[in-house]
Design brief:
The chain is mainly alpha-helical. About 60% of the residues lie in helices and about 5% in strands. Strands 1-2 form a two-stranded antiparallel ribbon. The protein has a two-stranded antiparallel ribbon with strand order 3-4. Strand 1 and strand 2 form a beta hairpin. The radius of gyration is 22 Å and the shape is globular.
Length: about 325
């Protein structure tokens, strides 16, 4: 058995959980700022493997000599940013949470720049949903695995919904002020999220998700908790898109009327892309933090059978907990 030497890191640090208190918005925000840090994409394969070894050794009771607590937490977040929590597989680069800001900056920026022509509207909405499918598959839950058929159905449905919304609204806004037309991509993305996420998590809507007591002991599966969790994720994803898809159009609409941009039209695209990126750097982690990852639901809102089962076995329990997903 491992014996702790003088000055060596203790083995009781819980690196299964985030470093900061997830019951507070600030704690969740700090966690997601770390998880979505795009700098993690620049790490080499050797650095990722070194972090994986530190984390796996620590979990096995072996402390890397000279390791500090800050280095342990850094290794844990690097490991979490690149490897799937259930399967342990290395996640494809664009499917990682740290790729969210640069990928969404590029795709969202292009959706806002090329919103006038039908072929470009279709292409960028399709590319956005293709990227979403990669992210959803890469971050799938091991508890409710996604089949290739479910993934394909969600992908086709979301892409169709996004393109149909974009083209439908584009034709409706032809005779309205140009600023209104700039918001069409956001409406399409919001519609696609409402389709994509429930379809991607349809198994949870059929069989429910695990609910636990405060100590983490599983009490059963609830469809009501799944519906609440999926609703929270849809809200978070739509809110995530609002700053990047609502603020730059207003700014660009004003700037494009000024002589500065009229004389330098080539500045329009990089300026819009930069504005989108700036908004996403803050919106992505802050909107992920809107709801606790471990959310709660009152027992009275559960299905009658599960409610009766919990009240019979644990009459003192009033609130149960579940993982809402991302």
């Amino acid at each position: 058995m491992q014996t702790e030497k003088m000055g060596e890191l203790p083995l009781d640090i819980n690196i299964q959980e985030p470093r900061w208190d997830q019951r507070t918005f600030l704690g969740r925000a700090r966690h997601f700022f770390t998880v979505t840090d795009p700098r993690n994409l620049l790490l080499s394969g050797a650095q990722l493997e070194a972090s994986r070894n530190i984390v796996q050794n620590y979990r096995a009771g072996i402390v890397t000599p000279g390791l500090t607590e800050d280095q342990l937490w850094r290794a844990k977040y690097v490991y979490d940013s690149a490897f799937h929590p259930d399967t342990g597989e290395k996640v494809v680069l664009i499917g990682r949470m740290s790729a969210q800001v640069p990928m969404n900056m590029t795709i969202t920026g292009c959706m806002l720049i090329f919103y006038r022509q039908t072929p470009t509207v279709v292409f960028w909405q399709w590319l956005n949903q293709s990227f979403n499918a990669v992210v959803n598959y890469s971050n799938r839950s091991g508890d409710a695995p996604i089949t290739v058929r479910q993934l394909g159905m969600a992908y086709v449905s979301a892409t169709t919904g996004a393109v149909a919304t974009a083209l439908g609204l584009k034709s409706l806004t032809k005779h309205l002020p140009p600023l209104v037309g700039r918001f069409v991509p956001f409406a399409a993305v919001a519609a696609a999220n409402c389709i994509n996420i429930p379809l991607m998590r349809q198994r949870e809507l059929q069989v429910g998700i695990p609910v636990t007591n405060e100590q983490g002991q599983r009490l059963g599966h609830s469809v009501a908790a799944a519906k609440k969790g999926i609703f929270q994720v849809v809200i978070s994803r739509i809110c995530m898109a609002i700053p990047a898809m609502a603020i730059p159009p207003v700014i660009m609409d004003t700037l494009e009327k000024k002589d500065f941009l009229k004389r330098r039209p080539w500045l329009g695209a990089p300026l819009q892309m930069g504005l989108v990126g700036f908004c996403l750097v803050f919106a992505t982690p802050l909107c992920c933090a809107l709801f606790p990852q471990r959310s709660s639901i009152h027992v009275s809102r559960l299905e009658p059978e599960l409610r009766a089962q919990i009240q019979e076995q644990n009459p003192s329990i009033e609130v149960v907990y579940y993982n809402k997903g991302l």
